[in-house]
Amino acid sequence: MTSAAAEEGSFYDKDAGHLVRPYAITNGRTGPVRDGFALITLVVTADPQTDTGRLAPEPAAILDLCRERPLAVAEIAAALDLPVSVVRVLLDDLAEAGLILTRAPVPLADAPDASLIQAVIEGVRRL
């Protein structure tokens, strides 16, 4: 077994999954500083040439996942098998460092008033 495989083996158990607790990955933080990482917020690496050699494994994995195309926060969490809350904290750190770009979901427009819809229908009928 190589040293990398031995190291991976000490933090992963086939049945239990990752043995590193979420608070260890986030340095004890439970939420991001900024709000804005909805499940469908798109994330992409700011510079595809970014060297991830000095980053912790999880932030490096996020940057690697988002190099080719934008991914939603939920997709990142699923790909890394991490809770969304942990991914949000990591994304917050990466955004603070300028390593990722995000695009928040477009808010749904307010539905038009029912009386306006009725007036349009009546106008169309008169044609």
Observed structural traits:
single chain, 127 residues, alpha+beta, 3-stranded antiparallel sheet, two-stranded antiparallel ribbon, 5 strands, 11% strand, elongated, disordered N terminus
Explain this structure.
The chain has 127 residues and is an alpha+beta fold. Helix content is 44%, strand content 11%. The chain has helices at 3-11, 22-25, 57-65, 73-80, 84-96, 114-126, and strands spanning 12-13, 17-18, 42-45, 71-72, 100-103. It has a three-stranded antiparallel β-sheet. A two-stranded antiparallel sheet has the order 1-2. Helix 4 (73-80) crosses helix 5 (84-96). It is elongated. The model is unreliable at 1-9 (pLDDT under 50).
